[in-house]
Every structure is written in structure tokens, then in C-alpha cells.
Amino acid sequence: MKPTELLQLADQFGCPLYVYDAAKIEAQYKRLTDAFSKVEDLRINYAVKALSNVTILKLFKKLGSGLDTVSIQEVQLGLHAGFSPDKIIYTPNGVSFEEIEMAAELGVQINIDNLSVLEHFGAKHPKVPVCIRINPHVMAGGNSNISVGHIDSKFGISIHQMPHILRIVENTGMHINGIHMHTGSDILDIEVFLYAAEILFEAASHFKELDFLDFGSGFKVPYKKDDIETNVEEFGKKLSKRFNEFKKEYGRPLALAFEPGKFLVSEAGHFLAKVNVVKQTTSTVFAGIDSGFNHLIRPMFYGSQHQIENISNPKGKERFYTVVGYICETDTFASNRRIAEIHEGDVLCFKNAGAYCFSMSSNYNSRFKPAEVLWHEGKGILIRERETLADILKNQIAIDL
């Protein structure tokens, strides 16, 4: 999107504001499907947790995507957005057994990552098809918080516990229709991913009636100019070849599934915030904006970098700024970052704000969550209203004591 278009939206809808470019989402989806065009049955299940606005889900439905969900609420959102149950996979971790049964009653694909839950579910619901999430014990991901396939991870059933899995399946007579893994996010080395794939193939060979193999996701996107990213085209070529070979060895039709979130929506997102103050101290120039980690927590939580542009003065002389928020504690988006000269009232644009940004926002300091806008076919469409005090008070009960 052009800076002028973003400024127009900031003026129309106010700041802070999340803006998503529909054309970029569509382009990323096509890029992934093209990379695996040699696979006869490819399933892309968008990871709802990345950005769960219902209009975004409807966009993915239009593109032909399924959904990857991690909570019963995400399942319900998917159904509300018009997805049929068979297009939704539910992969929880540490939830109650009752929640898993609720998802099963709704008819979605169940994915289980715990031996005790697998045994309990198989004993009670042996006729319900189940996918098993394995832990391949492969360390991959750009941050320890998003590396989920290593040996100390809480996710998945250890590949070394395959005898226990097979014992449970045999004893309960349950139907296993899929095998799943997810090693982590921001994966660059596709050879690591291909190595993990071989572990998944080996696990799949123990089950004779599988319908699909689910490779999770974790593709890295570029966060700044000239940043490195996962080469999905090369990965698609290599994994497609190996998957098609395995499918022949397996002897029955198999679908290849992925669950991308960040890859599909991250680069489509822009977060717009207005500069409240420019504050010079003895060693730092702070640019204080009308937002904080209540709206965009990733820099504080993960140490993530979001490119920041002054779209009010894009051609201004660059100076060093530390961009901070208005939360009443340390609240830093970027330290000593080169940005075109900033004045109070300017609008700053945070790039790569589509994934895990609004979805991780909060009402900390009793601040309102921002509005969301979809840029579609040259115009901005409001897809979430800015919160008001009524929203903050909605579920509170005021009692005179």
C-alpha cells in the first residue's frame, strides 16, 4: 500500500489503526499453492490464531482455504464465518477433555497431542477419526517461545513414544486418519524441515488408513529490507517430490496439509499510530505514540523487529529515535532506529503487523482496542469498530458497597 493511502485511512478512521491489504493476502496464498502445484491433494488450513477477524476468515474461505484452530472459540468463529466442519482442524494443547468433546460434536477434525487424552478419547469415541500430533524432537524456530518441536516442548507426543501410541490405537480400535507435526516458526533452513518430514513419514508408515499428513507451518517472512525469508518455492519443489514418492510407497491417496498463519497475513498488515510527543533527554530522542504494548506486544514479548516508517514525512532527513508507547511501564517498540524526521502529530507505520498483533492485544491500562480496516480493491472497509468505554464496562458488575 502507498503511504498516501495509509494516511487517508488514518485520517478517515483515526489512530491507532490496523490495516490489512487483501491483495497481499491473496498473493501469499497463491504463492504457497503454486509452490506445491505438483501435489494432487493440497490442503491449506489458515492458522486462525494469527489474525481471527471474521472478515479475514471469510476472505480465506473465498480463496479455498480451510482453518487451523487451537480453541473451541476459534472453531466456533470458523463455523460462524461459513466454513464447513470438515474444513476445520482443531489442535488444542492442555485443554479440558470436555472442550475436545465439544469440538468432536461440532464435526471438526480432532488432532490430539497427549497420550492420556488419546487413550481416553479412543475409549469413549472409537469411531471418531483422529489425527495425532507427534513431536519430532527437531529444534527449529526464530525464538525459544516459538520453537515447539524440540525435546522439552509441551507440544506433541514424542516420536519415541510410538509404541505407546500403537498400543492405545490397538486397544481402543480407534481410527487414526492423520499425522501432524509442527516444529516452530520463522524456520529458514528447509533442510531441517525436510529432515523432520522424514520423521513424519516414518511415523505415518505405522498407520494404514491415513487420509492426510499435516506438516504444520513456520515459514519465515522478511521483517525489514533485504531480510532473509524461507524459500517456499525451493521447499515446495523438494517436499512435493518426496511426498509424492512416499504416497506411492504408502499405496493409497494422501493429502498434504499445511497450517500457515504468519506467512499469509504478516506482510499484509500495517499498524498506524500518531506521535503524541517528541522528547529529548540527555542521551535519547523519544518518539512517544498514541499506543503501547497493549496493542502491539511482539517487540516487548519476542524482541521482534517491525520496520517503522514516518508516512507523514517519508522523504525527511533520517534521525535516530527510540519509539515508545504510552503504557505506564517500559514500553519500547524500537531503540535508536533510523526514521525520517519525526514531529508531533506525524503518523508512523509499523510494517508486518498482520500476524499476532491485534490478536494478542489487550485492554491493559483500560485502553481501548483499535479499529481494523481491510484495504480491498482500492478502498478501506471497516471490519472492526474501535472500542469505547461501554466495551470496557460491558461485562463488569458495579456493586455499591
From TrEMBL:
**Catalytic activity from the UniProt record:** meso-2,6-diaminopimelate + H(+) = L-lysine + CO2
List N6-(pyridoxal phosphate)lysine occurrences by residue.
49
The entry's protein name is Diaminopimelate decarboxylase
Gene3D superfamilies given in the database record: Alanine racemase, Lyase, Ornithine Decarboxylase, Chain A, domain 1
The entry assigns this protein to a family as follows: Belongs to the Orn/Lys/Arg decarboxylase class-II family. LysA subfamily.
**The protein's required cofactors:** pyridoxal 5'-phosphate
Q: What gene is this protein a product of?
A: lysA
* Active site location: 328
> Any idea which GO molecular function terms this record carries?
diaminopimelate decarboxylase activity; pyridoxal phosphate binding
- Binding residue positions for substrate: 298, 302, 329, 356
Any Pfam family hit: Orn_DAP_Arg_deC
- What role is this protein assigned? Specifically catalyzes the decarboxylation of meso-diaminopimelate (meso-DAP) to L-lysine.
Q: Oligomeric state and partners?
A: Homodimer.
Pathway annotation from the record: Amino-acid biosynthesis; L-lysine biosynthesis via DAP pathway; L-lysine from DL-2,6-diaminopimelate: step 1/1
